[in-house]
Amino acid sequence: MSTHCSQTLEFQKDYKKLAKRYRTLADDLAVFENVVAIKPLGFGKNFVVLARQKGLVIVKARLFCRSLKRNSLRIIYAYTEQSLEIEPVGIEFIELYFKGDKEREDSERIKLYLESR
Are 90 and 80 in contact (CB under 8 A)? Predict the structure, then answer.
């Protein structure tokens, strides 16, 4: 079973802005993609399920960024659980932010994402 990772347009904007500040972000995100491909809901206290809806799970996780040393970024993604349909198991990144810039995830963005599914 292979897991496909994609990104929303909003995530791509978040990523582009943060990648200018943190040079290791591309590599750090690639490592994170490998982790969630193996364990989509993550493990430990660095992963929290925010919402569940019809085979779709919204997860908030810490994304370790080597450029940040001790601090980490937060990443919000949707995990589509395998269904009986031909729908592939997948991960779609919804939001990426630095905890120092913003206290919490954008709940409105998550709500709109869920409504669009």
Answer: yes
